[in-house]
Design brief:
alpha/beta, Rossmann fold, 8-stranded mixed β-sheet, 4-stranded antiparallel β-sheet, 12 strands, binds adenosine-5'-diphosphate, binds iron/sulfur cluster, binds magnesium ion
Length: 426
């Protein structure tokens, strides 16, 4: 295991699915790097390929359906793309671990919490018996689970959703992974516990100096919790930048539109949120040219004919330097985007003004001056706080009560679902 260089390198990664509708290009040429101790946010609407990207990195996709269409994934400099389950089992948990959206599908419903935590400790460190139990209690305590000794002998259904997610975080952390991937870890949770889980992940990432990928559909979630953000649209990264740069100097119209859809505390309660018109494209038949063009307020004729490449922002010198060193500029550049008429540039402003004057974009989307003014006012409000959560300070006691309401002593539910893919990742 090397300690220099990035923990994760993803190079031009594509994962496609063979379906009756045709080939779905779920991930289509994504490049990323992530260093130890850093957090990367991956953001985009539902269906943009975030989960397939996360699972491609983990080598955790259904073999029959997924076509590894190209690219490389390196963990600590070691190529892992295409490794089989036997090889990956040695890496899951120790090198890379994942927290999934729904803790109920990642925990095994018929196995006690204690056993689920100690499995990895046994497999990777040969810890057994009392020693393993003591470590499990310590892990549960570190993720803020009340009465950890008691929890070891309980089943997942006896815990509240928030507590179950704490347990999955404990399991993911149990073998000290160098990279943690959290895929929408709070989406299935009540709003009152969302922030607690995000705080927990952030604390653990800092304490352990891990690399972390936080996947979310909500730009507000990653605003204050990441070092860098990659915005995904239709299977591709359309913009990537250090977090503060992305919020202050975003270039891609999709990033701008995502930012406009974040609720803000300072808005009067009746303020309508900006919604992005339309839906992401069918990845079996993405539009020619720029994939965002049908929904983009800046779209020009060129956008319908040509696919914009991922290039470093406003920095041709840096771009040339990187190319000269043999580095892939799309990987090495700190702020990159795919857009011919970027936000905040003369070309972008002229494109938008042209479309407003026409009353429509080149792709035929109607556009009013009023909509533009609204969005600009939104952007003037500055960087967003994470989505307001009214009772975010509610403690784990609230969580605890919910569990006590639901749980009883005794075994698992009779209709317990079968063990899922996620449960293999220990
Ligand atoms: N097993 C699969 N077979 C076919 N298509 C899939 C499969 N898994 C995901 N997809 C498709 O890949 C695209 C990206 O999905 P996903 O990564 O889950 O999006 P996100 O996580 O951003 O919401 C979607 O169009 C989805 O329908
Ligand atoms: S301006 Fe053109 S290239 Fe840029 S995002 Fe819009 S449609 Fe795509
Ligand atoms: Mg997803």
């Amino acid at each position: 295991m090397s300690t220099d260089g990035p923990v994760l390198e993803v190079r031009d990664l594509s994962t496609w699915f063979d379906t009756p509708r045709g080939t779905v290009r779920a991930v289509d040429g994504v490049s990323l790097t992530l260093d130890r101790g850093r957090t990367l946010g991956i953001v985009g609407e539902s269906g943009c390929g975030k989960t397939v990207l996360a699972r491609s990195i983990m080598n955790l996709l259904p073999k029959r359906a997924a076509l590894p269409a190209g690219g490389e994934v390196l963990l600590d400099g070691r190529l892992i793309r295409g490794l089989g389950i036997k090889e990956m089992r040695k890496l899951w948990g120790v090198e890379v671990a994942m927290v999934f959206q729904d803790p109920m599908t990642s925990l095994n419903p018929v196995v006690k919490i204690g056993q689920q935590i100690t499995e990895g400790l046994h497999e990777h460190f040969d810890l057994k018996g009392r020693e393993a139990r003591a470590m499990a209690v310590e892990l549960l305590r570190s993720v803020g689970l009340p009465a950890p000794e008691r929890r070891l002998d309980e089943y997942p259904h006896q815990l509240s959703g928030g507590m179950r997610q704490r347990v999955t975080v404990a399991i993911a952390l149990s073998c000290g992974p160098r990279l943690l991937i959290a895929d929408e870890p709070t989406t299935a949770l009540d709003v009152t516990v969302q922030r607690q889980i995000l705080d927990l992940l952030e604390d653990q990432q800092r304490q352990r100096h891990m690399a972390m990928i936080l996947v979310t559909h909500d730009l507000g979630v990653v605003a204050n919790r990441t070092d860098e953000i990659a915005v995904m649209y239709a299977g591709q990264v359309v913009e990537r930048a250090p977090t503060t740069t992305l919020f202050r100097h975003m270039r891609h119209p999709y990033t701008e539109a995502l930012l406009g859809s974040i609720p803000r505390l300072e808005y009067p309660s009746h303020t309508p949120l900006q919604t992005i018109p339309g839906r992401p494209p069918d990845l079996a038949a993405p539009p020619a040219g720029c994939r965002f063009a049908p929904r983009c307020r800046y779209a020009q004729d060129r956008c319908l004919a040509e696919e914009p490449p991922l290039l470093p922002v406003d920095d041709p010198v840096e771009f040339a330097r990187l190319r000269g060193t043999g580095a892939d500029p799309a990987v090495a550049g700190s702020h990159v985007h795919r857009c011919f008429f970027p936000v905040g540039t003369d070309a972008g402003e002229e494109a938008l003004a042209r479309n407003v004057a026409e009353g429509r974009t080149a792709a035929g989307m109607p556009l009013t001056a009023e909509g533009v003014v609204d969005l600009l006012a939104t952007l003037d409000a500055g960087v967003a706080e994470p989505v307001p959560t009214a009772d975010t300070d509610a403690t784990t006691e609230a969580d605890d009560d919910a569990a006590d309401d639901r749980g009883g002593a005794g075994g698992p539910a009779d209709d317990a679902p079968p063990v899922s893919d996620e449960q293999a990742v220990r």
